[in-house]
Amino acid sequence: LQVTKPRYNVLLSYPDDNRPNRVTLRSADGTITIETEGVEHVYDPNQIQTVKPFLAYTPNGTVSSTKLFYANYGQIEDLKHLASVVGNASLQGSIIIMRYGRIFRGDKVMHAQYFGAAGAILYNDPADYAPFGTTPDQVYDQKWYMPPSGAQRGSAYTGNGDPLTPIYPSTDFMGRLEEKAAPFLPRIPAQPIGYGEAQVILKYLGGNEVPANWRGILSNVAYRYGGELLN
């Protein structure tokens, strides 16, 4: 049979291998308190290295805020509860950190965006990804559970097909949307990090402690709703 192979022109995201994405906490005078590595621990330097942690289809850019909130799994009911506790106005222009699980990563970012966040951070809590402990004998490379530096990559696009030609094939002759007009694309930057770094960041959260069903199992962390960052 004669087989044709059409050429597609799709919108794709690529990380910058020379400049990894980072999450930075600064003190009131601007000095860096914490800065994530933007890379994972290398267990075997002879293996082909994967791309550095990033979330495809989230926009390029740098955002900052004095407010950091924790929103559990980032489900819509989680954001509604958070807003009821801290107030909708407090969430405007904030950064929201959420743990992976329960729903698609892209929906977490979109929910944070809907509630006014300027950016989002996602991490894998050991409660869901290292349930037998985070010691070296219980995680990769000794077991298949997530190690402290492990970060989940993937698309944050919540639609189907190519974002600029929804429903239709992305061939050269197809009409295209402008990227800013494409539905289901996140409008806020978002970054995945490992729970080793999330453990340090979460210690800077203020506010009241969250209910038991919102708590992960990171040691020496009092899971709080957040607010203005503690110095």
From TrEMBL:
Pfam families: PA (PF02225). GO terms for molecular function: carboxypeptidase activity. SUPFAM superfamilies: PA domain (SSF52025). Residues 70-155 form the PA domain. InterPro entries: PA_dom_sf, PA_domain, Peptidase_M28B. PANTHER family: N-ACETYLATED ALPHA-LINKED ACIDIC DIPEPTIDASE 2, N-ACETYLATED-ALPHA-LINKED ACIDIC DIPEPTIDASE. This is PA domain-containing protein. It comes from Rotaria socialis.
